[in-house]
Amino acid sequence: MKTAIKIIKAARKYWGWLVISVVAILANSVLGLYLPRAVRRLMFLISDRDPELVDKALSLAGVFLAVALLQWVAQFLKTFCTHKAAWSFVHDLRVTMYSHLQKLSMSFFHDKQTGQLMSRIINDTEKMELFIAHASTEILAGALMFIGVMIMLFTINVTLAWVSVAVVPLVGVGVWYYAVKVRPLFKARQQIVAEMNAVLQDNISGIREIQIFNRQERETEHFEAASRRFTTYNIMALTRSAIVYPAITFLNQIGTVLVIAVGGLLATRGVASGDIVAFILYLSSLYTPINNLARENEDLQEALAAGERIFELLDVCTDVPEPENPVSLGKVRGEISFNNVDFHYNEGMPVLKDFTLDIKSGETVALVGPTGVGKTTVASLVARFYDPTGGSVCLDGVDLKDISLKDLHDNISMVLQDVFLFHGTVEENIAYGADNPTHEQIVAAAKVANAHEFITEMEKGYDTVVGERGVRLSGGQKQRISIARAILRDKPVLILDEATAAVDNSTERLIHEAIDKVIENRTTIIIAHRLSTIRNADKIAVIDKGAVCEIGTHEELIARDGMYKRLYFAAGE
Questions:
Q1: Could you tell me if 16 and 81 are in contact, meaning their C-beta atoms sit under 8 angstroms apart?
Q2: Does a structural domain hold residue 324?
Q3: What is the pLDDT of residues 533-557, one digit of tens each?
Q4: Are residues 351 and 307 part of one domain?
Q5: Please, what sign has the CA dihedral across residues 397, 401, 404, 405?
C-alpha cells in the first residue's frame, strides 16, 4: 500500500487526466447498467401483452443505441486519458531517476553495475504504465461497477442479492493470497531482468577480452543461467495465477448456480420471471469486475514490485550533499589546501591520514609515491567526488563543502588515464566541456594539444565518429583529444591523472608538449607514474602511508636522499 501511495503522489501532475478518466469510467459503468433494466422492462411489457409493445421496444432500442454510443465515447476518453497520464508519468519518472543518479557521489557507483541501473530506469519505470493506465483504473472501474450493480440487485430482490454476494468474501481471500504470494516473485523477476542487462552490458563492453581469452562459452552460460532464473520465477508466478484465476471463476459460477437455484424456488412462489432474468443478466456485470480484479491484480503486483525498486533508488541520498547556503566564488584564483585530511573508502581501511598540502595559485604540483598510497584519491577530493572523513579541503580559503558542486566544477578540468569519449564525432568530444564553442576554437585547442594533425588525416576529419568509448582511436589519440577538451574548457584548476601512463615514448613526448602549454597560468595537480615527466614541476609531494612524507623540487628531493630519490632511481629514471 505504501508503494501504491508513493506512485499516486508522484503522479499528481497528471491527476487531472486521471480525474477525466475516472469520470469516463463512472459514466461507462452507469451506462452499462442500463441494458439489464431495459431487458427487464421489455420482459414485463411482453408478459403484460402491452398493446404498444412494438413502439416501446423500438424506443428502448433507440435509447440502447444512444447508450452504446455514449459508452464508446466514455471508453475512448478513459483509454486516451489513462495512457496520456501513464506514459507521461513514465517519461517524468525516467528523467527524475536519471537526474537523481547524476547527483549521487562516486561511492554509490562502486558496487553497482551499469546494466542494473539501466534496468531500473528503463524496465522498472515501464511497469508504471501498468499501474496508471490499467491496474488502478480497471480496479477503480470494477469497484464502481460492483457498487452500482449491488445497488441495482438490492432494488430488484434483496434475497437474491444476498445470495449473489455470498461468494465475494472467498474471492477476496483468493485475491489477497495472490497478492501476498506473487509480488515477491515479480520483484525477484525484475531483479533478474536487471542482472541480465548487467551481463549483456558487461559482455558487449568486454567483447574483445571475451574473444581473446576464449570465454564465449562461459559467458553464454552466465547469461543462460540468468535467463533460466527469470523463466523459473515467471513460471512460478504464472502457476499461482493458474491456481487463483480458475478458482475465482469457479466461485463466481457457484454464485450464479446459487442465484438460479434460489431464483427458481422464488419463481415457484410467484416472483416475476422478469426480475429473475434481469437479475441473472446483472450477475454478469457483478462478477465481471471481480474477474477483472483478479486479472488486473497481476499487473498491479508487477507494477508495485517495480515501484519498490524505483523508490529504493530514489530514496538513496548522496554522501556529497549540496550546501544549504553555498558560497559563490565565480572564477577562482586556484589556491588549494588540504588540512589534516583523513579519508577511507571502507571503514577501518584508511587511504589518507592527516594529509596536509598547500598549493598556491598558478603552481604546478606533482603527486608521486608507490601504487595505492592515495594519489588519485587526492585528485578526487579536489573535484569533490568524495568528501573527506576528517579535516577539510579548501579552494581559495573556502571549504569545498560550502561551495555548490556546479560552481566548483565550473573551475576544474581533468585529464585522466582512462579517457572516456562519448559515441560521437571528434569535434563533439573536444567541445563536450565547453559552452557552444566555434569550430575555429575547437581546431585551435586541438592544435595546442598536438591532435590536429592526426585528426585531419582521418577520412572525415573532425566529423569522424570515434565509436563507443573512442574504440576507433589509439590510446595516445584519445589522450590528446582529452587534453584538447581540457584546453578548450579553459578553467583555472587542472588535474592530470596519469595522463601518459599507457602510451609510447614518441606519443608521450607529444602529450607532454601539449601539457606544458596547457598548464600555463593554471593551478595544476599532476599524478605521474614516470617521474622524469614531472621534473619541472614547481614542487613535488611524495605520498606514503596516506600522508605527505617529502615535498620540494626535483633537485631538492634528490639531494635529500629520501623516498623520492629511491623511487626515481629504482625506475631507471
A1: no
A2: no
A3: 687 888 999 998 889 898 998 888 8
A4: no
A5: positive
